[in-house]
Design goal:
three-stranded antiparallel sheet, alpha+beta, Butyryl-CoA Dehydrogenase, subunit A, domain 3, 13 strands, 665 residues
Length: 665
């Protein structure tokens, strides 16, 4: 179909070349082309093209279609020799966009955990089986009574030296494993987190390879009770499950023993360093930052394109209806979120790069950088998932009534990503983990000790005032965020120390100052994201026009963040009144500056219409045609008169009618 004229005009008037920005986002023209090539293969698959639309599936259909899709994708990737992890991701994204897969945790956690924490013998025994899907697993940690507090888990694994087995039990109702993805009906194995008991002592939570179902019949094994937990807010394709174990025995070599070991006589050998287990958590949380950035980006693509096409209300009496993207209130809703999507994307890339670098150091025995990266990844996971979840909902509401329909694609994106606020660590707890690290750093600052580079700004002079001037330089924006974070950290640490001076224990004192500590942790994450965005636009090897567009977005992200948290920047008079006025005017100017490039900036993410799965976010802008066709395809329209009319409405009408009523009034 022809491109909507409003969208065509937006693209003609952009100040930069969209392809240049796309190439920068995906690390060069070769990788950008490769991404399109891989995704196009998936998009042309007849089986995938003919699957029943997501919006019209019931729960069982969601699960079965997703399962069939993933097996098809697994088979096709092997046939096409797609082995690179990035290529696999792009193929999967095009095959099942914003749909959680029944084998998702098998590849994301079960297999990597065996590779990371298994001995060489265990890897030889289980890894290839898992890669070939001869065993299918998940990661089972959360219980009815305990989630993020891992040390509180109640499931037990007691070593029996007489049989060389671990006896697994969920001894209480609250010990029931609850929520693990793919557990209910799909997997036949799991990585089980359980309290290790041997020689009469508890040695804390450890990982065990636990078979769950017969590999031939798929029947649950004796001593194993498991099933699906039922419908949820989203994730209909995922059989989140429950698990109870009753004296279920597994061999000794089913405990993952790369770092911790139980010998044949029951002797426990602890790991050389407890921080060795941080690696997997950091990797997953860093991946979540990137995942939520993509979801927010897709929501922005839909909302911005729709806002360019949708016209509403005369600006001048008798004049044409305006594009709603021309209204400043709509710009203020959407453009900071567009900037946020870019900011989170760059932050996710940065923290993943740090993880890969530090992982090599860990393998070499150097664990010095792990605590700072663990604290950052925990905080960023919370900061970005909170921001993306709230932002996607703003995008939905900015699309008016059509945003409420599944046809918009926005509910699908939202319900797929908002669980990130609670899985892999509930966000408030994640922020408190970051806060505890910041508290330690603050104590070091007081002692004059040197801090790691990532947090060295915490030793900044808190009496300094802002350098903000009319140009609103990137340097002054970074300084503002560093000052805010350093001040909030110092104030929170002082509160903890004050409570301790009053006689409270360190633990009680921290809890009494926990809200302040959370403010500090959020500020720390915010400054990191701003700093990464600034470094990205300054150091990027891109043409001047693309750099200018990205710099405008970067300033918008930072200035909007200041205005949304203005009290924290004003509390110690870091900004004066004139500087606040400068920032207020700059925010409005930046909205106007982004306006001509808004459609080009969302186009640069290069999401195919099939990935967006949205009637109102189409590249061609023919949203009303798409909405009409969507409405006609509703299963309720297969019959003009439903059976329910004859069952319920007609008898009611006949029972209330004493005299004939004409068929048409």
């Amino acid at each position: 179909m022809a491109i909507n004229p409003d969208l065509a005009k937006e693209r003609r008037n952009a100040s930069f070349n969209v392809e240049d920005l796309t190439n920068f986002i995906y690390h060069g023209p070769e990788r950008a082309r490769r991404r399109r090539y891989i995704q196009n293969i998936a998009l042309q698959e007849p089986f995938l093209k003919n699957c029943k639309p997501w919006a019209f599936r019931n729960r069982e259909e969601e699960y079965e279609i997703s399962l069939e899709k993933q097996l098809h994708v697994f088979k096709r990737q092997k046939e096409l020799n797609i082995t690179d992890d990035v290529d696999k991701f792009y193929y999967n994204e095009a095959s099942a966009p914003s749909e959680n897969a029944p084998f998702g945790l098998h590849f994301a956690m079960f297999l990597p955990t065996i590779e990371k924490h298994g001995t060489e013998e265990q890897r030889k025994k289980f890894v290839q089986l898992a890669k070939d899907l001869r065993i299918i697993g998940t990661y089972v940690q959360t219980e009815l009574g305990h989630g993020t507090f891992i040390r509180g888990l109640e499931t037990t694994a007691t070593f029996d030296p007489n049989t060389q087995e671990f006896v697994l039990n969920t001894p209480t109702l609250s010990a029931t494993k609850f929520w693990p993805g793919n557990l209910g009906k799909t997997v036949n194995y799991c990585i089980l987190m359980a309290q290790l008991y041997t020689q009469g002592k508890c040695h804390g939570v450890h990982m065990f390879l636990c078979p769950l179902r017969d590999l031939d019949t798929h029947q649950s094994l004796p001593g194993v009770e498991l099933g699906d937990i039922g419908p949820k807010f989203g994730f209909g394709s995922n059989d989140n499950g429950y698990l109870r174990l009753n004296n279920f025995r597994i061999p000794r070599d089913h405990m993952l023993m790369r770092y911790s070991k139980v010998l044949e006589d029951g002797t426990y050998l602890k790991p050389t360093n407890s921080k060795l287990s941080y690696g997997s958590m950091v990797m997953i949380r860093a991946g979540i930052v990137s995942a939520v950035s993509r979801s927010l980006a897709q929501a922005c693509v839909i909302a911005v394109r729709y806002s360019a096409v949708r016209r509403q209300t005369e600006v001048s009496p008798g004049g044409p209806e305006a594009q709603i993207l021309d209204y400043q209130t709509q710009q203020h809703k959407l453009f900071p979120l567009l900037a946020t999507a870019y900011a989170y994307y760059f932050a996710g890339q940065a923290v993943q790069a740090s993880f890969l670098k530090i992982s090599k150091e860990i393998e070499a025995g150097n664990l010095q950088q792990m605590p700072v990266l663990h604290a950052l990844s925990a905080g960023l996971k919370a900061f970005s998932s909170w921001g993306a979840s709230a932002g996607i909902e703003v995008c939905r509401m900015s699309c008016g009534g059509h945003g409420y329909s599944l046809a918009s694609g926005l509910p699908k994106i939202y319900t797929n990503i908002t669980p990130a606020c609670t899985y892999e660590g509930e966000n408030s707890v994640m922020m408190l983990q970051t806060a505890k690290y910041l508290l330690k750093c603050s104590m070091k600052v007081q002692k004059g000790e040197k801090l790691p580079e990532l947090v060295s700004y915490l030793s900044t002079d808190l009496s300094a005032k802002s350098c903000m001037a009319a140009d609103v330089s990137l340097k002054c924006l970074v300084m503002a965020y560093e000052h805010r974070s350093a001040r909030l950290t110092s104030a929170a640490a002082a509160a903890v120390q004050r409570y301790m001076s009053d006689g409270q224990s360190p633990e009680k004192a921290f809890n009494m100052a926990a809200t302040q500590m959370t403010w500090a942790a959020k500020a720390h994450c915010h400054q990191y994201v701003v700093k990464v965005f600034v470094n990205t636009v300054v150091e990027a090897k891109i043409d001047d026009r693309t750099r200018a567009a990205l710099t405008t977005l970067c300033k918008l992200y930072a200035v909007n963040g200041i205005m949304e948290n203005l009290g924290e920047f004003l509390q110690d008079q870091f900004f004066n009144n004139d500087q606040v006025n400068i920032l207020t005017r700059k925010l409005m100017t930046l909205l106007a500056d982004v306006r001509p490039d808004a459609v080009a900036l969302v186009d640069a993410f290069d999401y195919h219409d099939r990935i967006l799965d949205s009637c109102i976010g189409r590249y061609d802008g023919n949203v009303y045609y798409a909405l009409y066709e969507y409405a006609k395809s509703s299963p309720l329209n297969e019959k003009d008169v439903l059976d329910s009319f004859h069952k319920y409405i007609k008898p009611l009408r006949e029972g209330q009618t004493s005299s004939p009523v004409p068929a048409r009034l």
